[in-house]
Hints:
Blueprint: H1 4-20, H2 34-37, H3 39-44, H4 51-54, E1 66-69, E2 73-77, E3 83-86, H5 92-97, H6 105-108, E4 110-111, E5 119-120, E6 126-134, H7 136-140, H8 149-168, E7 174-180, E8 185-194, E9 196-202, H9 205-208, H10 212-215, E10 227-233, E11 247-248, E12 257-258, E13 267-272, H11 283-314, H12 316-346, H13 348-364, H14 367-373, H15 376-402, H16 406-422, H17 428-450, H18 454-471, H19 479-485, H20 492-500, H21 508-515, H22 519-528, H23 530-571, E14 586-591, E15 595-598, E16 601-603, E17 606-608, H24 609-616, H25 628-636, E18 649-654, E19 666-668, E20 674-681, E21 699-703, H26 704-714, H27 718-723, E22 726-727
Parallel strand pairs: 12-22
Antiparallel strand pairs: 1-2, 1-6, 2-3, 3-10, 4-9, 5-9, 6-8, 7-8, 9-10, 10-11, 13-14, 13-19, 15-16, 17-18, 18-21, 19-20, 20-21
Helix pairs in contact: 1-13, 11-12, 11-13, 11-15, 11-18, 15-18, 15-23, 16-17, 16-22, 16-23, 17-21, 18-20
Amino acid sequence: MLNPKQLFLVLLLALCSLSAWARPDEGMWLPMLLKQLNETDMQKKGMRLSAEDIYSINKSSLKDAIVQFGSGCTGEIISNQGLLLTNHHCGYGQIQSHSSVENDYLTKGFWAMSKEQEKPNPGLTATFIVRMEDVTKQILGDIPSNLTEAEREHRITTNIKKVQYGATNGTHYGAIIRPFFYGTEYYMYITETFRDIRLVGAPPESIGKFGGDTDNWMWPRHTGDFSIFRIYAGPDNKPADYSTNNKPYTPKHHLPISLAGIKEGDFTMVFGFPARTTEYLPSQGVSEIAEISDPAKVKIRTMRLHLLEQDMLADPKVRIQYAAKYASVSNSHKRWIGEMRGLKKLDAIAKKQDLEKQFAHWVSQETGRKSMYGHVLPHFEQNYTILANDISLTRDYYQEAALGVELLSYAQSFLDLAELIQKGYQTEQQKADIQTQIKGLLDAAPAYFKNYNQATDKKVFASLLEMYAIDIAYKYQPEALKKAMEAKKFTWASYADKVYGPSNLASLEKVTALLKLSPNAIKAKLLADPAVTLLQSFNNVYQEEILPVYNQLTEQNTLLNRLYLQGLREMQKDKKFYPDANSTLRVSYGKVEGYKPSEDVTYEYYTTLEGLIEKSGMTEIPDYRIPDKLRELHLKKDYGPYAINGKMPVAFLASNHTTGGNSGSPVINAKGELVGLNFDRNWEGTMSDIMYDPERVRNISLDVHYLLFLIDKFAGAGHLVQEMNVIYPSSQPDPVVKKESVEIKHKDNIFKTKKKVKIDD
Length: 761
């Protein structure tokens, strides 16, 4: 007979075991393992495909239409001529690079009416996954268990290079090998990277960024967040550098686009490259994020955004220069705020502590477990206590405040050059290395200063360094900053003048003149430059006092996390564990559904153009301004074949588990057809990088009806729609033959579902 205490422990274990199961719709799954882990569940939820239809190395499959766009987004192929769809915010940098005050494509939009008008983008890439392979044995097979973490990583790096070379030598393919489950498993992705990617079309930012920072991460959304590019290849359909002789790429697979409409409960799947999650952190790690790191970064970026906004509103040139920078700074700023609130509402730290109690009890049951795992939780507590004692905070302030100043972050490359010259240049190789670095800085300078405003950066300098001086412990203040503050009549504005005035790095003219000097003269000027010396002073503190401690504890925590997760997988043998995101190709799946952000509010799962027009009436909010043509099309109900029952869908919600990197990912229906373009998460669900909540986590997607309407009716680029494989409802005539006065009747009309809260009409 169990006593009350024993009975409580049994019940606690049972409850914790149930709560530890991967929740409905949670997970970012490896495509090559769908057959064994997910296919049955996906089909029970409505999917009509097989795992082989999604990922195959024997035939064309959905994975052959998915690309990593650049280095941080996802894109998908939507025509047999290499047409590539991604988010507007993913293509924003390219759109900006082609923009000027005279040709402001950010404001007006851009549409190539022929392939000859499509604009090249040097440096932009699109990477396909050819195949995946489990290479755990090749990477870990010869590594003893008694190595230090540093020794282990060195051996792993050597093995990775050998495996990569063996897989790609003599081919044009690349190979990426990444650790999973904190380095207990390794998978290799064989890649094919295309280098000639051209801009085809983008709506004006009043559509592509409709709602701006006001609506970012929020629901309801009405953002036409898309841009279109095209992949070009050489005559053999293989990757090639840009050439006017290149041809549109012929893909192995491109996604058909369904206009049948969606309804609540429909199966959805997101295919893409999620960047980073930390789902298996201990409670102390969650506490560090929620109570130290996120609040500090939000505070710094709040000030930075305020200063940028002031100057952008005052000067159209500055607005264009800082548009992409502002969007980048703002995006994470708002996400961190939502993450903090979400973790608090979910009581995430307490939930993690409950799981740790279960783990500690499980460990205590056997001597072998005690020797293997007994030290894990106490060492977590010890390490995170040290990090919380100014180490994490100072690291965040160095990265966000010191390097948040453009002059200081720009100075890093010049400091590297000075140190390279200082090492000497007697050999031909040393001379060549120095000249290569000088040429690289010279070539990059015009583009850098095109998007730089010194007056704005000086304001950021003064405010952010003042925050650093106030919030960071005196022992971690850089000597140059201490010395500057001791000067008589010191002000932060006057200090900015003393740094920027004589600096050789504050204008294109000065940088160009500097880099045309001899190497020794360049070195002398740089080592005396006030911006370089200030950066050097910050770097000294960071590299000598902060980084060694942080790296040592991070190394220890990585090993502890590996053991902890290994133990959890032993303890919960029936649970399907998915690895944290690491910018590799993943599949997540869920269903179309709304959510309740609070007890007295329920959000429906879709929005319409009516809601967008209603928002646009709030003229006091600049983020809600729209082009006159969009308003005219709405007034005339001139939607072509893209409306449903007279209304234009704009965006919808689903419960797919997504994160950064999933921007631009296709939302695919049960039959493998494109129904949406993922572009965001809801604010209440941004904590899903750390802990998923099935009640509140939703991904936000652009509906393909609105996408095609904007391309065809708004932009007049119907030739692009004709290039796509658009599947129209059987009751609907072919739009190429007859586009006007089309009445759409469809049994799955999304607007026939029962409404809970009116957010559009």
